[in-house]
Structure to design on (182 residues):
């Protein structure tokens, strides 16, 4: 659907706050292959790394695809100073087989305040009124939209950027939290 409607809706970014264990390996997993196909069609694909850390080799699909931008979570301790930032314990880590280091980047993913949603809502029915409109969430799925928003800002500034350009700009502008992060 995304590829079929790319031009109609000017789709430039696909943000995937999802993941599952890869079927087979990173080279032939169907979700990873599909994400790579979308990327090859000029759409920047940004996916959550997964929440199976701190063990190595726990990146979920489609984040195992070496082309796309895979996002892990950082705990920023709710401070401005980045010196106390650490990779969130739950954030999945690479490497991904012979494909190399993943995640590509980390973003705030601990105690992120976001809209609350009725998980039981079914389209066409009256939604239940929630008492709390906002809630705190943690995970690579809440870190991923932060990176997707940064990619959107880059495209707004320069609409001619390719997915590879966007990935390069995001990776080049990041800081290392540690020399031994996978």
């Amino acid at each position: 659907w995304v590829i079929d409607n790319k031009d109609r809706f000017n789709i430039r970014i696909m943000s995937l706050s999802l993941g599952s264990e890869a079927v087979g390996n990173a080279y032939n997993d169907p979700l990873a292959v599909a994400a790579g196909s979308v990327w090859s069609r000029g759409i920047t694909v940004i996916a959550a790394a997964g929440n199976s850390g701190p063990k190595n080799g726990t990146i979920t699909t489609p984040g195992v695809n070496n082309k796309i931008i895979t996002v892990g979570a950082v705990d920023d301790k709710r401070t401005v100073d980045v010196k106390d930032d650490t990779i969130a314990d739950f954030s999945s880590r690479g490497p991904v087989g012979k494909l190399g280091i993943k995640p590509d980047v980390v973003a705030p993913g601990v105690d992120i305040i976001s809209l609350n949603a009725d998980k039981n809502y079914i389209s066409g029915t009256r939604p239940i009124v929630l008492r709390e409109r906002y809630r705190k969430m943690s995970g690579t799925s809440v870190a991923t939209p932060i990176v997707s928003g940064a990619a959107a800002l880059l495209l707004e500034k320069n609409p001619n950027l390719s997915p590879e350009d966007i990935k390069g700009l995001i990776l080049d502008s990041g800081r290392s939290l540690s020399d031994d992060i996978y």
